[in-house]
Design a protein that fits this description.
Layout: H1 2-26, H2 41-45, H3 60-68, E1 86-96, H4 129-137, H5 167-187, E2 200-205, H6 208-221, E3 232-235, H7 248-267, H8 269-282, H9 286-291, H10 294-303, E4 310-311, E5 314-315, H11 318-338, H12 340-364, E6 372-377, H13 379-389, E7 402-410, E8 417-423, E9 426-427, H14 438-441, E10 447-448, H15 449-463, H16 471-476
Parallel strand pairs: 1-6, 2-3, 2-6
Antiparallel strand pairs: 1-7, 4-5, 7-8, 8-9, 8-10
Subcellular location: Golgi apparatus membrane
Catalytic activity: 3-O-[beta-D-GlcA-(1->3)-beta-D-Gal-(1->3)-beta-D-Gal-(1->4)-beta-D-2-O-P-Xyl]-L-seryl-[protein] + H2O = 3-O-(beta-D-GlcA-(1->3)-beta-D-Gal-(1->3)-beta-D-Gal-(1->4)-beta-D-Xyl)-L-seryl-[protein] + phosphate
GO biological process, one term: glycosaminoglycan biosynthetic process
């Protein structure tokens, strides 16, 4: 009896010690080995995601879940973090629109039944959702730049239209906006309580899903959403290149990149077999099915937990989905190695990056307008910018992805300004081309604004392996 009691006591003690150890690790009370300036050595190597939750090998289902970005719990965020003697003076946000209905229909199958009306009693939910609908339903009371002024301000179809923003997409950006508002407005007071319209710069492409995503983020972001202060500019190009869109060399890189994609697909016999099986199910030629981009529709089924489409000849299934998704992942890996997409990205992203640094420089010189800028865009906008910055490990932009440029002023040396780059809440500044070697050359805790300016004005063309020294010459050079 005594032996058994001792054994039970020891067992209980061991369980208590194990619990305490796990609890201390969970609440970060046990220090982790840190690299220079407090960053962990592991975080210096990886951008996304948390290695604790990432599978040891590439898992297409896990990657698809990340892409869906289903709103569940508040995410961790590193926005707004800086040494105490730095003051936040400007924030520029580039977002991808939220979850949307597919852009393509799978031939001879029923469209997925997704409801694009907004309902407060349906998941996913956000505390501001009902107020957002009420506010938007009253109309803006002001006009946006044409053709935005003729677009609906929120999704409102019982069966989603092609490419339409869903309730999930609205909630994703209400959540983004509230998170950024808590950091930039409540904590850092980026905008004064009596902020004026010229302190915001808002721009979107001419798609309802980007306009509505931008409005949802702003509604979550601003403590007082005043229509008189909201004005969206229209951007005709998904590259946000404004008057600098003509670039023949960029288009040549894109053509070569598309050729690389085609050749990689031809090498993948499993992919071709999968497309053949799926084509038989819907009784269409394989070429026609592939042109319908079935993964776009299947991702909608996956993200909304709706069964894959079926016909009398069978059903699309998870194995089909995994093969196509895995090929996308392999394609992204080869894309980084071949660097054709990098050439396209450097020229494709230069106009919007140039606009970004011009705004930063004006604010660094003392201007008080456009301290918060929002570009509501697409995956084909964010992806080139990420690549051009050198963020090769960053995953393909998920729904409601956000890329943020922060500008900070050193209170001890007011003439000095620094930048931070954050992707989906993760600080990726020291993974960029322009600041990856900063710690080797400087003891300053943040990346100087001059580094980013020099990169955009000069070093982007060096990275392009070009003798050109400006955007126009790089776009028109011979011999690519």
């Amino acid at each position: 009896m005594l032996f058994r009691n001792r054994f039970l006591l020891l067992l209980a003690l061991a369980a208590l010690l194990a619990f305490l150890s796990l609890s201390l690790q969970f609440f970060h009370l046990i220090p982790m080995s840190a690299a220079r300036n407090g960053a962990s050595s592991k975080s210096r190597k990886r951008i996304m995601p948390d290695p604790v939750t990432e599978p040891p090998v590439t898992d297409p289902v896990y990657e698809a879940l990340l892409y869906c970005n289903i709103p569940r719990v508040a995410e961790r965020s590193m926005e707004g973090h800086a040494p105490h003697h730095f003051k936040l003076v400007s924030v520029q946000v580039l977002i991808r629109h939220g979850d949307r209905y597919p852009l393509y229909a799978i031939p001879k199958t029923k469209r997925p039944e997704i409801d694009c009306t907004l309902m407060a009693n349906r998941k996913p939910y956000h505390p501001k959702l009902e107020a957002f609908v009420n506010h938007m339903s009253k109309g803006s009371g002001s006009s946006f730049e044409s053709p935005l002024n003729s677009m609906p301000l929120y999704p409102n179809h019982a069966l989603c239209e092609m490419g339409e923003l869903t309730q999930t997409g609205v909630v994703q950006h209400l959540q983004n906006g509230q998170l950024l508002g808590d950091i930039y407005l409540k904590k850092h007071k980026l905008l004064p309580s009596d902020w004026s319209p010229d302190q915001l710069y808002l721009e979107t492409t001419g798609r309802s899903r980007t306009l509505q995503s931008g409005l949802a983020l702003l509604y979550g972001f601003l403590p007082d959403f005043d229509w008189k202060k909201i004005y969206f500019r229209h951007q005709p190009s998904v590259l946000f290149c404004s008057g600098n869109c003509y670039c023949p060399v960029r288009n040549q890189y894109l053509e070569k990149e598309q050729r690389r994609q085609y050749l990689l697909r031809l090498k993948n016999s499993q992919l071709e077999q999968t497309y053949g099986e799926m084509a038989k199910i819907v009784n269409v030629p394989t070429k026609l099915l592939r042109a319908a981009n079935p993964i776009d529709s299947m991702l909608c089924h996956f993200c909304h937990n709706v069964s894959f489409p079926c016909t009398s000849s069978g059903c699309f299934d998870m194995e089909h989905f995994k093969v196509i998704k895995m090929h996308q992942i392999e394609d992204e890996k080869e894309r980084r190695k071949k660097r054709l997409y990098l050439g396209y990205s450097l020229l494709g992203a230069h106009p919007i990056l140039n606009q970004t640094i011009d705004r930063m420089q004006r604010i660094a010189e003392g201007r008080k307008d456009e301290v918060f800028a929002l570009y509501s865009a697409h995956d084909v906008t964010l992806s080139p910018v990420l690549s051009a910055l050198g963020l090769s490990e960053a995953r393909f932009p998920r729904f409601a992805a956000r890329l943020i440029f922060e500008l900070w002023q050193d209170r001890e040396k007011p003439s000095e300004h620094s930048v931070r780059i954050l992707y989906n809440g993760v600080d990726v500044t020291f993974h960029t081309f322009f600041c990856q070697d900063h710690h080797k050359r400087s003891s300053k805790p943040m990346c100087p604004l001059e580094n980013l300016v020099r990169f955009v004005k000069r070093d982007m063309f060096v990275t392009l392996d070009s003798s050109s020294t400006n955007y126009h010459d790089a776009c028109h050079r011979e011999g690519v």
